[in-house]
């Protein structure tokens, strides 16, 4: 398929059922599909949207283009779960194509209000000259999961002084007021997070201030701002584009960053004593992490495992990208921890003693102080993902150079991170065929990435490290 602009923006109703069946058939033959990670049923998945708890279920949506592995006309696809581990995909739910979202139902969030779920999202509207006119739109989902869009935008235009890069509203409630955070690019080409407020979710929405969370320059644009509270402290996860390497050192095309404050001032929307800007994930493929404060008291988040402006080997099979596991966020010693939610323990089927592992496995390992050790995941074709731990210098290196079909090689094929020198390292590696998530020292550091081996079997080799292996369940 040649993905012209016209084809990428062809209205959904003009695609035939047969075209979707054909893509599905092709995807069913793939050996790169995942066993327990959220993946698109067809086409491209990107940002997580609308993560919420409503009507006694977890709800999660994904940015979706169902007809191919390209960034085309986006909709929200709907997932529900009783346990944050087993998800049911209900397919396209919030569809684009009306005046307020003609060229895509872009990212946003959701919050229960009364007996409905309120969704706020960006309507990507383009005119005949392909100029953007972003709208911040609303929609209601009822208890039968039926969605009704509100045709009048909640916020009609970007604030004067800001460009048409103005999107990804995150709605939160504090006391009796609704607030919404929007990612934006000022006319002076700097990236910011704008805060709006309203007495009711449906409005009237008025501009309040820019969020104050750093005194550093955040590049030219911020996408997907996400504010939540962990141990009562504010945590902002965001995607700065064009941020300087001396503000944040990163290797991916764009980073997914995080700042933690000591406290939060709701009057001025300021972080009190914000931390430095840090990477949320030290790996290859994490972006647009989206979380919320769940009614059970946990701060939960899920990441897009995939990056903008990047092609992946599975594109040719008609699908791309996946989500991370759902993670619980905690703060210990001023540091953000990401821990797969405890419900994931249900996935554990049995322990394993052989060198050969299933494509769905969890490897747990430890390396004592002052040692160097490694773990290698190999396929029968000798493709390998290598993890080297060095407790003398406090360093972890993940190398996917020879892990299969190469991709995104311009951004390097290794990632490394520092941990405390002279201390033991403990880590859990979740492998799910073509995605891995490495949680180091209880989630203090996370290294996530994709690999696309041509081989189908995995073997584990290790040096100096004892590895505990368990088989995990396949749920798709
Ligand atoms: C981030 C992003 C958002 C936008 C969405 C469109 O990956 O570019 O800013 O709303 O994807 O799919």
UniProtKB/TrEMBL annotation:
Pfam families named in the record: Glyco_hydro_32C, Glyco_hydro_32N
Location of this chain's protein in the cell: Cytoplasm
Presence of the UniProt keyword Cytoplasm in the record: yes
Keywords, ordered alphabetically: Carbohydrate metabolism, Cytoplasm, Glycosidase, Hydrolase
Domain (Glycosyl hydrolase family 32 C-terminal) ranges: 356-464
Pathway: Glycan biosynthesis; sucrose metabolism
SUPFAM superfamilies: Arabinanase/levansucrase/invertase, Concanavalin A-like lectins/glucanases
Entry coiled-coil feature ranges: none
Domain Glycosyl hydrolase family 32 N-terminal: 37-340
GO BP, one annotated term: sucrose metabolic process
Coarse class of the protein's main subcellular location: cytoplasm
Record InterPro entries: ConA-like_dom_sf (IPR013320), GH32_Enzymes (IPR051214), Glyco_hydro_32 (IPR001362), Glyco_hydro_32_AS (IPR018053), Glyco_hydro_32_C (IPR013189), Glyco_hydro_32_N (IPR013148), Glyco_hydro_beta-prop_sf (IPR023296), Suc6P_hydrolase (IPR006232)
Function summary: Enables the bacterium to metabolize sucrose as a sole carbon source.
Designated name of the protein: Sucrose-6-phosphate hydrolase
């Amino acid at each position: 398929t040649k993905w012209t602009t016209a084809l990428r923006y062809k209205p959904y109703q003009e695609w035939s059922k047969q075209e979707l069946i054909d893509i599905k058939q092709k995807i069913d033959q793939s050996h790169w599909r995942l066993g327990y990670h959220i993946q698109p049923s067809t086409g491209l998945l990107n940002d997580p949207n609308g993560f919420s708890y409503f009507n006694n279920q977890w709800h999660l949506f994904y940015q979706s283009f169902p007809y191919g592995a390209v960034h085309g006309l986006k909709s929200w696809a709907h997932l529900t779960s009783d346990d944050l581990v087993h998800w049911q995909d209900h397919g396209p739910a919030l569809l684009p194509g009306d005046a307020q979202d003609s060229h895509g139902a872009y990212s946003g969030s959701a919050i229960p209000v009364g007996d409905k779920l309120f969704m706020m999202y960006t309507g990507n509207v383009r005119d005949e000259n392909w100029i953007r006119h972003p709208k911040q739109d609303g929609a209601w989902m009822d208890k039968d999961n039926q969605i009704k869009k509100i045709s009048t935008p909640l916020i009609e235009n970007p604030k004067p002084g800001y460009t048409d890069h103005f999107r990804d509203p995150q709605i939160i409630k504090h006391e009796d007021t609704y607030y919404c955070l929007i990612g934006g690019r000022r006319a002076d080409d700097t990236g910011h997070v704008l805060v709006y407020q309203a007495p009711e979710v449906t409005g009237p929405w008025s501009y309040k201030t820019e969020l104050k969370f750093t005194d550093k320059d955040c590049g030219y644009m911020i996408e997907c701002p996400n504010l939540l509270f962990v141990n009562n402290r504010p945590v902002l996860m965001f995607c700065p584009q064009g941020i300087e390497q001396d503000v944040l050192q990163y290797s991916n095309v764009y980073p997914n960053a995080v700042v933690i404050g000591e406290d939060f001032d709701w009057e001025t929307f300021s972080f009190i004593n914000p931390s430095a800007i840090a990477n949320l994930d030290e790996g290859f493929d994490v972006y647009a992490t989206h979380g919320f404060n769940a009614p059970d008291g946990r701060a939960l988040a899920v990441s897009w495992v995939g990056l903008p402006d990047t092609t992946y080997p599975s594109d040719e099979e008609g699908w791309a990208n996946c989500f991370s596991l759902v993670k619980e966020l905690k703060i210990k010693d001023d540091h953000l921890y990401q821990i797969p939610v405890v419900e994931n323990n249900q996935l554990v089927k049995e322990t394993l003693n052989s060198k050969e592992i299933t494509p769905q496995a969890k490897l747990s390992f430890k390396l004592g102080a002052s040692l160097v050790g490694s773990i290698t995941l190999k396929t029968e074709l000798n493709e390998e993902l290598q993890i080297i731990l060095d407790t003398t210098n406090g360093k972890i290196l993940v190398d996917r150079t020879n892990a299969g079909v190469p991709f995104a090689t311009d951004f390097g094929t290794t990632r490394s991170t520092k941990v405390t020198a002279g201390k033991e390292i403990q880590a859990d590696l979740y492998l799910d065929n073509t995605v891995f998530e490495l949680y180091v020292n209880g989630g203090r550091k996370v290294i996530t990435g994709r690999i696309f081996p041509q081989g189908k079997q995995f073997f584990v080799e290790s040096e100096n490290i004892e590895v505990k292996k368990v088989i995990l369940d396949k749920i798709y």
